[in-house]
Amino acid sequence: MRNLILNQTYSFSLFNLINENSQKILSFHFDEFSKNLTILDKEYKIYIFNYDDVFTKFKLIHTIELDAIFYDRFDILEEISSSETSIKFLLYKNEEETVSIILSTGKLLKIPIDGRYEIVEIFSSEKILCVEMSSNLEFVAIATNKNKLYLLNYDFDLVNNCDLDDGDLTDASKDINDEEKEASISWRGDSQFFACLYSINGGKKCLVRDTKLEIFKGPARSDGKVVFSIAEEPIKSNKYFYFIYKI
């Protein structure tokens, strides 16, 4: 999605791409490798577009109607659109012709273009705060409200896990309100490191880890006063992380 924003060649309106009657976009994801744009709207429709470099435009390649797919599981449709549930991840896999959706409740929905859907409980007792796939599609990093950080592979199999917080001047056990917990993940361009910004003890904290979940750099501490945010430098070498803070 980074390149879509920076390069005018990729400029477009999501609402212009999908049905004019669509009232709300629930989630979307752009895969920079395959150049597929996947959009899920409030009408339970998934639109899959592919970017054509030659004609510099998006071409609709698939449309999936979830109300037809989940005709026997209306509770899944209600969960997708519920105000208490959020869609944390949306991806279309070319080789499998399958859309994968991860909900904040811990469910993984695998929806093939042709075939029967599959519902997998990734985390039955944890709420997913954020999900982000590495640029090379090798890893998926997931942070949960139980102070856990998980690393999965492209097939969503567990590779490694650790505590989200390192305990440096913070204590995750003191956080009792799950509704206030937030997190976001940003992968470096080479997919060797990722940063996780999360709320803890009334403030924010940011840790950078490698693909072994070892901490690379921890510049932020939560003291209730300083809030850190993180962004990847997108134009030059994608080599450095930049940290912005305010007091």
Write out key terms for the chains shown:
247 residues; mainly beta; Methylamine Dehydrogenase, Chain H; 2 domains; four-stranded antiparallel β-sheet; 4 helices; 9% helix; 46% strand; disordered C terminus
* DSSP strand content: over 45%
Mean of all residue-level pLDDT scores: 82
Counted up, domains total 2
Alpha-carbon Rg, integer: 19 Å
Terminal-residue CA separation: 30 Å
Give the number of DSSP strands.
18
Low-pLDDT regions: 1-9, 225-247
Shape: globular
Number of helices, where a helix is a run of at least 4 consecutive DSSP H or I residues: 4
Q: How is the main sheet built?
A: 4 strands, antiparallel
Helix content: under 10%
Instruction: Look at the helices and sheets and give the structural class.
Output: mainly beta
Strand order of the largest sheet: 1-2-3-4
Question: What series of H and E elements makes up the topology?
Answer: HHEEEEHHEEEEEEEEEEEEEE
